[in-house]
Structure prediction request, 959 residues.
Amino acid sequence: MSSLSRELVFLILQFLEEEKFKESVHRLEKESGFYFNMKYFEEKVQAGEWDEVEKYLSGFTKVDDNRYSMKIFFEIRKQKYLEALDRQEKGKAVEILVGDLKVFSTFNEELYKEITQLLTLNNFRENEQLSKYGDTKTARSWMANASASSSVQAAVVTASSIPVPQNQVSVLKHPRTPPTAPGMVDYQNPDHDQLMKRLRPTPSVEEVTYPTQRQQAWSLDDLPRTVAFTMHQGSAVTSMDFHPSHHTLLLVGSANGEITLFELGMRERLVSKPFKIWDMSTCSVQFQALMVNDTPISVSRVTWSPDGNFVGVAFSKHLIHLYACPGSNDLIQRLEIDAHVGGVNDLAFAHPNKQLCIVTCGHDKLIKVWDSMTGQKLFNFEGHDAPVYSICPHHKENIQFIFSTAVDGKIKAWLYDNMGSRVDYDAPGHWCTTMLYSADGSEDSQIKFWDMDTINLLTFTDAEGGLPSLPRVRFNKEGNLLAVTTADNGFKILANSVGLRSLRAMEPSSFDPLRTPIVSAAIKASGSPAVANVGPVSCKVERSSPVRPSPILNGVDPLGRSVEKPRVVEDATDKVKPWQLTEIMDPVQCRVVTLPESTDTSSKVCVGILALGSNGVQKLWKWPRNEQNPSGKATANVVPQHWQPNSGLLMTNDVTGVNLEEAVPCIALSKNDSYVMSATGGKVSLFNMMTFKVMTTFMSPPPASTFLAFHPQDNNIIAIGMEDSSIHIYNVRVDEVKSKLKGHQKRITGLAFSTSLGILVSSGADAQLCVWSIDTWEKRKSIPIQIPAGKAPMGDTRVQFHSDQIRMLVVHETQLAIYDASKMERIRQWIPQDVLPAPISYAAYSCNSQSIFATFCDGSVGIFDADSLRLRCRIASTVYLSQATLKGTQAVYPLVVAAHPTEANQLAIGLNDGSVKVLEPTESEGKWGVNPPADNGMLNGRTTSSSTTSNHTPDQLQR
Prediction:
């Protein structure tokens, strides 16, 4: 349609609006397909006028136009269906099901069947997924709000190729085919003058034209569109910036507050700085109050100074950090400034009067300029009426100035004086605008390249998939590399041919022994009291005193819906290759995620991890079921949420009068994961896992509890190992100790039930194993574990039954051993050696009992074949620890390991710095290494890069 015709439609709409011809206004909107009136649409949704809602929407898009259209039509018809069910109008519901919803069965038959089954329920809220459905009014409000932010606009814009102001939709979809309808403007506005302004054709309302061929001196091949590689960060990437002159150095900020410097050519993580407060005493009272509540801190902006000598970091609460960067692999703390009240939304460097300054803006509606050398505030710009979203220092000839934009869409320009803003105008759409990027991260998980001289789309790419709906993007200064965030908490590097050559030029040989590994576990403990008290365990090779038990970690799967990952079929050619131990030194060889400290109250979860720290505080992390993780399963691809119930309760043990340095934390889960029992030197507490409420407390010290275990057949029966070496059999229902078992000389360190053998096996710090009948609680047998020559029989001994309930794993710092519990005879033994020489800190069977996960005091993790006790895979600490931690004064290593209850290759480790990591193999590998060849008969044969199973007799051990 011609521009003149478009202007005519504007005038007609203006006239109809002024004369209050409402029906005619909306009819023209719909029939012309020009203007989608979101306010009118929302009103009809709220009123439940579903026929009018569909009729109006159909003027702009059809059900099968695109996935957004299909989604919004489905939601409309589903709501219509649910309302009929809620009114108990089953006949009407069947009519909607057959007439309106049937069309979607061809796309998702299972979903249609599930919707049909709602007819059989008295109340559709009995369906788990609809249990949170409120009343009709609430549901309609939710639909209207959801529509306003996503699906309706996406559907209409994608189908109609209509430009929409920013207050209508945050990102535009460009048509894949030439547009058949001109633009759309939401002209409705409560302010009539503003309405008239926006109805008049002005440069802010531009027509999108389909790209045409024109003469150009460059090619689309110059754009970086080829995926060079992907890096997994472990936490959502929130900001990125390339070094101004070293074009393969990328600075990355994450949602957990950590910043990381990557050398892309080497695929290396050079340095990592987790968030921490450098000097709390210099921070404002408001910020100190926030940190008392353990407020999560994320990175809102990272940026290099123009000369690349400094790094600026803005955080989501109050602070900015300035680092000096004297070399490519070091960041030195320079300045910490409590810059704004609330979030710091943006940070940039500027050179007013040839002085390097830091410019910041924040939620407090202010823009501030700071001296980069002293941290002194130089300017304070006031004038915005809303939080300032973005700043862009610039200069033209000799004039230095700052552009700023706020969330209300106001753009202002400031000179470095105190005379107020020099320019004041509205951004398109009256919404916040970032004045920085030349690539658009769009809502359809694509990257689009635009011609800056026109309004034409040049090309687009989905970067081979895996992008979030709104990816963040960043070019390097040469424009040959493009970093884009991924949905699984990492980023991809896209390159053109020049960029690919620059990356390959720096890429080291895969056999380079000096290569520094990338550390992808990005979420670090913030030093909050909840995790800071996890005490270290002495892990010397020679030791004369027992080790205090570590904090305990357990896997939780409330719904139990996970299934074991399929085992990868080995290629036939592997059978003729000499076996080699799988050694994982680099985070890209597996998947790692660190559990965050921030809390969430979401309830859409399937699986979680429970951890008890030595301060008596238990924490629960859950994986949400969302777009990134539709299954809701535990995965190292997605950062879980630190979960608390809406009540805000914490699961905290009674530690009154307890010396936490000497206390032994212990924990156990009931068989259905409904209850958790724990103690930290004081009373034993029984918690409800859903509400975190204390159900009861019992067994006041002394003596203190040191190990807990639920009876596998009766949650009311609990075995409690004590500090005084006794074992109490306690009945929760009657609040009574039924039996006291005595047989050890030192505190109890392990308990394990076998229902098939009818026994309880206990282990103690005396290196003894005792067997008890679970019918009479009489002792059947007692044997010592066989300690290697030269080692003291001290330290914790732990026991766990194989899934067959016959074989039993015995773990001591000096060995892993497999026993036949029916005879209490040792079958196999492995002693730390070769690539794993350090003392063992913990070990556990995988959920299918085919593997044993063992952790060591040097930070290594070993995966053993559970039958042969042969080492299959070694994971180095460089995989899950940052370079800064590895170079620190405190040795950080796992104190405990827990196996996922259904995923055979997923494990969680709890470290002595209070952090918890989840590790799993990459999807391409599917498992931790390959089983070593069968024993060739050598008792202590050595295989390159492998460790060996030892079947020595006690006499041989003493030689």
Remarks:
- The longest strand covers residues 388-396.
